[in-house]
Amino acid sequence: MISVRSVNLSFHHNGVRLPVLKDISFELGAEDSCAIIGPSGCGKTSLLFLLNGLLQPDSGAITITGAPRCGTILQNFGLFPWKSVVQNIALGLSLRREPADTAGKRVKGLLEEMELTGFENHFPGQLSGGMQQRVALARALAIDPEILYMDEPLSSLDALTRERLQNLILHIGRTKRITTVLVTHSIEEAVFLGRRIILLSHRPGQIVRILDNPDAGSRDFRTSESFFRQCSTLRATLARETDESEA
Ligand SMILES: Nc1ncnc2c1ncn2[C@@H]1O[C@H](COP(=O)(O)OP(=O)(O)OP(=O)(O)O)[C@@H](O)[C@H]1O
C-alpha cells in the first residue's frame, strides 16, 4: 500500500545543503502498524512529512496506492488554541465541506468515543495533556482515515496516561482497520505499537534495521517475555548505532 523507494531528502539553509534522509526504502501493507525510531534530528518527522505529502523528496519515489484518506497528528497535538474542542475536532470535516448535520453527528460520536462529552466548548488550554491528545486523535479520526500518521503523539504525557492512550491507539488501529505510522523516541512505545519498527541512523537518516515485531497488537503484549526481548534488541541496536556515530 505504501512503497518508499530510494528516497533522498535535503534542506537548504543559508545556501548550504543539509542532507537529512539518505536512500530510504521500505514497504508497508494495508492495516500495517509501523513505528519509526532513531536519534534526535535524524529525520523522523521529515520522513513522516514525506509520507503524508507535506514534503517532496529530492529523488526516489513514494507510492501510496488507492488515494487513501489520511489523518495526521502533529507534535504537541497541533490543536488550535483559539478554537473549542468541537471546532478543533470538526476542522477536517469543515475543510471537506461536510454538511453540518453529518459533521455534527460524527463529532458527537467521536466526543463519546474519546470520553470528551461535557467538554465540547472548552478550549485546549483548559484541558489536561491526555484530553488534548484525545481531541487531536478525534480530529484525525473525524475524516475516517485509512492511514493515520502520528508524530510523537504521546511524548509530553505522564506514564499512565501514555499507556492508556497507547491502548486506545492500538484499539483504534485494529477496530477501524487503519494503517498507522508512528514517530516516537520511546523504545517501549515503538515495540508496543509497531508491528514493523524502522530504525534510523544519525542524520542523514538511513535505515539501520527494520525489525519485524509480529506479536505487537494486543494489550497483553506489554507484559510478555517477547515484549521485553524485543525492547532489549531495539535498545541494543539503538545504542550501538549511537555509539558508532559518535565514535
Ligand atoms: N524546514 C527545514 N529547514 C531546514 N532544516 C530543517 C527543516 N526541517 C528540519 N530540518 C532539519 O532536518 C533535520 C531533521 O529534522 P527532523 O525534525 O525530521 O528530525 P527528527 O528526527 O524528527 O528530530 P527530533 O527527534 O528531534 O524530533 C534536523 O537537523 C532539522 O534541524
UniProtKB/TrEMBL annotation:
<dbReference type="InterPro" id="IPR027417">
    <property type="entry name" value="P-loop_NTPase"/>
</dbReference>
<keyword id="KW-0813">Transport</keyword>
<keyword id="KW-0067">ATP-binding</keyword>
<dbReference type="Pfam" id="PF00005">
    <property type="entry name" value="ABC_tran"/>
</dbReference>
<dbReference type="InterPro" id="IPR003439">
    <property type="entry name" value="ABC_transporter-like_ATP-bd"/>
</dbReference>
<keyword id="KW-0547">Nucleotide-binding</keyword>
<dbReference type="GO" id="GO:0005524">
    <property type="term" value="F:ATP binding"/>
</dbReference>
<protein>
    <submittedName>
        <fullName>ABC transporter ATP-binding protein</fullName>
    </submittedName>
</protein>
<dbReference type="InterPro" id="IPR050166">
    <property type="entry name" value="ABC_transporter_ATP-bind"/>
</dbReference>
<feature type="domain" description="ABC transporter">
    <location>
        <begin position="4"/>
        <end position="227"/>
    </location>
</feature>
<dbReference type="InterPro" id="IPR017871">
    <property type="entry name" value="ABC_transporter-like_CS"/>
</dbReference>
<dbReference type="InterPro" id="IPR003593">
    <property type="entry name" value="AAA+_ATPase"/>
</dbReference>
